[in-house]
Amino acid sequence: MKIEVVDLKNKATGEIELAESVFGVPVREHLFWEVVNWQRAKRRAGTHQTKTRGQVRGGGRKPWRQKGTGRARQGTTRAPHWVGGGTVFGPQPRDYGYAMPKKKRRAALCSALSMKLGKGQLKVVDNWELPQIKTKLAIETLSNLEAPRALVVDVTSRNEGDNSVTHNDNLRLSVRNLKEAKYLAVEGLNVEDILRYDYVILSRSAVEQLQEALQS
Q: Which region holds residue 11: left if phi is over 0, alpha if psi is between -120 and 50, else beta?
């Protein structure tokens, strides 16, 4: 299938061939639920913690003698049934992440892209070359593309010397302050962000890299 490629003023500059296996698959909404839950579980900090009786300060002295007081025997004032005592089976630091099959993640991503294309909410621009870092310029560009609430995606380059990654900073920093838009590198494209924004706008290079990755 083919889709029109436009420039940043929304004027047609050509066409690009989209792979059916990436942008033309059936929409499987149940995969969205599974993959988004998996993404959110991985992001959870898991730093919650309550103190057990061994961690609560104090309580080292036996509150009263074992026998002869008429009261129940007690060994410490930091036992769970005492006010100020420790917590039994309270939350402890843990990792909420779990495994998700790679094929299922890939199928969900292709399904989300296919859904956006089917609804006319996926656009391809020739390139994302903004002349300077300016939020106002990003707003004007998204307005020209008739997609104010959009996920914008572009490629990155890897530096051979230190193996660092260089982003399209003019685009990334211009979009950073917008509440209704978000920048992502193509390797970071994910189902949750695709579903969150009304439009997905990819550069031509991003489409080519995405298809190569998802078809391999």
A: beta
Note if the pTM is more than 0.70: yes
Q: What is the CA radius of gyration of the chain?
A: 27
- Cross-strand pairs, 135: none
Identify which of 161, 215, 151 has the alpha carbon closest to the alpha carbon of residue 186. Answer: 151
Which of 149, 151, 107, 106 has its CA nearest to residue 125?
Answer: 151
- The H or E element containing residue 118 is helix 102-118
Note the pLDDT tens digit of each residue in 10-22.
999 999 999 999 9
Q: What is the pLDDT of residue 216?
A: 66
Judge contact between 167 and 153, C-beta under 8 A: no
Domain residue spans in the chain?
A: 2-42+98-215, 50-90
For tokens 């996920």, name the residue.
151
Query: Rounded to whole angstroms, how far apart are CA atoms 156 and 188?
Result: 10
Instruction: Please enumerate, as own/partner, the contacts of 175-182 that have beta carbons within 8 Å and a separation of 24 or more.
Output: 175/135, 175/138, 176/135, 177/135, 178/135, 178/138, 178/139, 178/142, 180/148, 180/149, 180/150, 181/138, 181/142, 181/148, 181/149, 181/150, 181/151, 181/152, 182/151, 182/152
User: Which residue reads 């006319």 in tokens?
Assistant: 120
- Domain 2-42+98-215 in this protein, CATH class: alpha beta
186-212 per-position pLDDT tens digit: 999 999 999 999 999 999 999 999 999
